[in-house]
Structures are given as structure tokens and as C-alpha cells.
Amino acid sequence: MTFQKKYYSQQHYPSMGSAEEKDIFIHLQHKFSAQFQQVFPDRLAQKTVVIIPSLTLDKEILSKVKGHIYYEERLLCLLMLLKMPETHVIYITSVPVDPVIVDYYIHLLPGITGNHARKRLHMLSCYDASSKPLTEKILERPRLIYRIKELIADTNAAHMSCFNVTAIERSLALKLNIPIYGCDPDLFRFGTKTGGRLLFKKCGITVPKGFENLKNEDDLFKALATLKTENPFLKRAVIKLEDGFSGDGNAVFTYPTTDILNIEEDIRISFHTQLQVVATNIDANAYLQKFNRMGGIAEEFIDAIEKTSPSVQCRINPIKESEIISTHDQLLGGADNQVFIGAYFPANEEYAKDISTIGKIITDELSRQGALGRFSIDFISVKEQGEWKHYAIEINLRKGGTTHPFLLLQFLTDGIYRHNHGDYITASGNKRFYLASDNVENEKFKGLTPHDLLDIVIHHELMYDATKQEGIMFHLMGALSQYGKLGILSIGSTKERATEFFEKIISVLNEECEL
Question: pLDDT tens per residue, the chain (515 residues)?
């Protein structure tokens, strides 16, 4: 009997999305609460974390993100879990991670030798650089699934940690017989643009004027026309695909100068020339085709002299407790500042507590709906007559660009974000701030390997200093040589020092690449 036949002959897996599969998954998730209460609090308990950093998102939009396969490296911050001496980490990627990158993270572990940590770290790879989601690649490899299962000592003390959870992550969880610390994909609707707006309205939270649950271009054109009719001074509207990622599912429509009586027809005629799509290499026609397949929303473009884009990072644990983990001020770029490029932590002290309060209302409602794990809520905030007004715009029901920087800060400083004060305090009682970005990109950086990068940083004494709890951390290092792109986390005792470290490393890299 071949391996594959032998492997599957011993097990039965229900078909993906079937009622049977969903019932088994719910049972796994219910058991997770006992594990959370009994195993999680004990740092000496033997446990296993299976990390699946798959970006299971729209393939066409994801393909526009340079080096997206290396975004799987962002969750390497979870290697810090190895500081618990009986914890095993199984980390799967599409392509192998350079050992120097793994060593970089292992070196940061407090109170644990590198040798001790490596014995409990299991790095596995699909050896597949295609654009398919990592989880799909794993499901196509029964031998790899078998190896993962062999590495799990006790399924009652193990769980999966994913970037986002879809039907294929649910299927993988069943094959591994472990729960996911993440949201049931049947609750996916709350992570769509329509679902977010409807939940905000249910909670009494202010949202931009707009229309959700648009199914096709006819719905879209009517919504755009109604927005303009109700507000003749409106100049632009934002259109969002239901399941966009990092702003790449967005487009901005600029209204033509026209007679308000003929607005819908004029929108149809001018749509292709007046639409600016955020994602590169997708024109208005292709975007409209995607909208007809996926649906989405249209809302007014909020404009103001003082305007920011904060976010609140939240978590719901397996016993349904909800908490605010952090706040960030997002840095946006691209067409009309629709693309996430980085963030300052924490958010502006003028409103950090206010958006935390709003975020807690939303998080409590999501908990009542059965949500689980980390997610974030994005806002647009404008200052009017000296007061900040906050518009909730979407729920990212997954990990995101602000997840790994904050996790790394916590692991490095053993601190806590005090949402009632809007600040972060380390274990030693000091405040910390950071500036983080996944999108540091320069053609001149191409050809630099992770080895080169670390040599440069060490030479210029910009490496994170554990004694001072300040300095530079890197991620996405695998993307550097081919794409000239990497991620940077700059930690400082003040916002200004974090910015100074960030600007310094950019300057140093530019200088070094002139050689």
C-alpha cells in the first residue's frame, strides 16, 4: 500500500464546508476553552503552537502586493513563544526561511539558550513559490500534514495560529485535530465591508454616509448618484470590494461636474475616466468586473484639514473575554491615501482613549456573536471645532499590519498597553513607542541579503538593544534581495526617538547601497 493510501485509509475527513465538518470544528473550538484555562497560564506546561501564516485572500489583489509570499515571515515574531521552556513551535512556510533570519529571532529570546529553543522549533516548508495561499499548498501535501501531526505531542495542548481563518484553514484544523485561535469562517460576514458597517450601526457607532450590500454595478451607480444627490457638495466617494486587503480593494470616484438631475447617467458615462483604483495594474473595467463578482460598498470620502486614520487592535479569548490590546495611528499612501504602509504606536493621546472605548463596544458585540482571536477596527478621525469625531470604517477580522510589531514589543519588553491611559508601559515601568512599516522599499536595496542587512545594522550599532529596550527590528527580510523591500520596527523611549531610529536606518541603507 502506498503512503498516501495508507495515510488516508486510517482516517475520515468530511468534505470541505459540509455540515459534518462544521460540527466537528465547533466541537474542537469548544474544547479550546478548557485548554486556554488550564494550559495557557502555565508557562512550564508542555504545549504546541502550529503557526500557519497563510494570507488566504483574494488571489488577484494579493498578487499585486510585491513579495507577498514573504509576508509569511511576519509571524516569526511568534518564535518568541519559545521562551516558555516546554513550548514547541511548528512553523510552516511556502518556501524555506533563511537560517540567518531564524537565528535572528532566536537570539532575542530571554533566559533561553539558542540550542534549547532550536530543539523545540520545527520549521517546515512546502517548497512551493506559487501564488496559491500557503494553507492550500499544505492541504495538497498529505505527507507534510502527516509530519506536522507527528510533531504534536498532545492535541489537547495544541492549537493553530493563523493570519486569517477561511474554510481551508478550518479543513486543515480538522486534519490536525486541533483548534484555531481565530474566528470561525462562518462569521466571515463581520469582516466584510458590508458586515462591518451593519455591525457599527447596530452598536450605534458613527459611520460615513454610504450604502452597503451592493451586489453589482447597477447598485453601485445608484448608490453613487444618491450620495451626490443628498450632498451636492460631495466631490469624491470611496468604493470598496467586500473582501479587500490593505486598501488594495478600494477605489476613489471623483464626481464629474454635471447637472444633478442627470447624475446617475453621467456617472455611468464618466465612471471609467473618473475612477482611480488603488491596486496597481487593475483598470476601471477590471475593477468593475470584480465588483460584479464580489460586491461591496460605497461611502462618502471624508475630507478635513485635520484627518487621521487610527486603528484599535482587539482580542477575544476562548472564554469570551474581550480586551483592547493597542491603538495605532496608521500611515497611509497610494491613491488618495487608501493603502496601509505603516503605523505609529500608540495612537494620538488626544483620542486614544476615545477610540478604545468605541472599540470595546464593538468587540463586546463581536464576542456575543461568537468571534474569537485578534482583529482590528479602522477609523477615520477628523478634528472639527477643536473636537475629534470618529467614523468607524471597517473590521479586519484577522491579524494585520499592526499585529506583529505589537507582539514583538510585548515579547521584548514584557509590558502592557493601558487603554484607559492610552500608553504602553514596560515591565520596568518605562513608556515605549514605535514606528513600524511593512513597506520600506527602494530599488537600490535589491541584491542585499539578510546577511548583508544584519552586517550593516551591527556595524552602525542600530540593532535593538535589550538593555535600553530601544532600537531597530526587521521583518520581511526574505523579500529584500529580490524586491528591495523589507519591514522595519523602530522602538524608542519617545515617539521622536522611534522616528529618529527609523530615519537613521533608512539613511544608512541608502548610503551603504551607494557603494
Answer: 455 555 544 567 899 989 999 999 999 999 999 999 999 999 999 999 999 999 988 777 677 678 889 999 999 999 999 999 999 999 999 999 999 999 999 999 988 999 999 999 999 999 999 989 999 999 999 999 999 999 999 999 999 999 999 999 999 999 999 999 999 999 999 999 999 999 999 999 999 999 999 999 999 999 999 999 999 999 999 999 998 765 568 999 999 887 666 889 999 999 999 999 987 778 899 999 999 999 999 999 999 899 999 999 999 999 999 999 999 999 877 656 656 788 999 999 999 999 999 999 999 999 999 999 999 999 999 999 899 999 999 999 999 889 999 999 999 999 999 999 999 999 999 999 999 999 899 999 999 999 999 999 999 999 999 999 999 999 999 999 999 999 999 999 999 999 999 999 999 999 999 86
Question: Which residues have a Cβ under 8 Å from the Cβ of 12 and sit 6 or more positions away?
Answer: none
DSSP string, 30-58: HHHHHHHHHTTT-TTS-EEEEEE----S-
Burial annotation 403-427 (CB, 10 A radius, 16+ → b, else e): bbbbbbbbbbbebebebeebbbebe
What is the DSSP code (8-state) at residue 245? -
3-state class of 144 per DSSP? helix
Distance CA 88, CA 90 (A): 7
Looking from the CA of 171 toward its CB, the CA atoms found within 13 Å total 17
Single-letter amino acid code for the residue at 193? K
What whole-number distance in Å separates Cα of residue 419 and Cα of residue 354?
9
The residue assigned the cell 474554510 is 167
Contact criterion met (CB below 8 Å) for 463 and 453: no
Sequence-separated (6 or more) residues with CB below 8 Å from residue 397:
164, 183, 187, 188, 190, 191, 371, 375
Q: Return the exposure string of 304-343: e unless at least 16 CB atoms fall within 10 Å of the residue's CB, then b.
A: eeeebbbbbbbbbbbeeebebbbbbbbbbebbbbbbbbbb
Q: At what angle do helices 99-106 and 450-459 cross, to 10 degrees?
A: 40
DSSP conformational letter for 108:
T
| Beta strand extents in 96-226 (DSSP E only) | 121-125, 158-162, 210-214
Sign of CA dihedral 364, 318, 411, 407: negative
**Alpha-carbon span 166 to 162, nearest angstrom:** 10
* Integer CA distances (angstroms), 240 to 163, 338, 339, in order: 21, 10, 12
HSE value, Cβ hemisphere, 13 Å, CA-based, for 454: 16
Q: How far is CA 425 from the centre of its chain?
A: 24
Q: Specify the residue for cell string 514589543.
A: 409
Strands 373-384 and 275-277: unpaired
Residue from 115, 125, 49 nearest 94 by CA:
125
Residue 344 CA to residue 408 CA, distance in Å, equals 14
Beta bridge partners of 441: 485
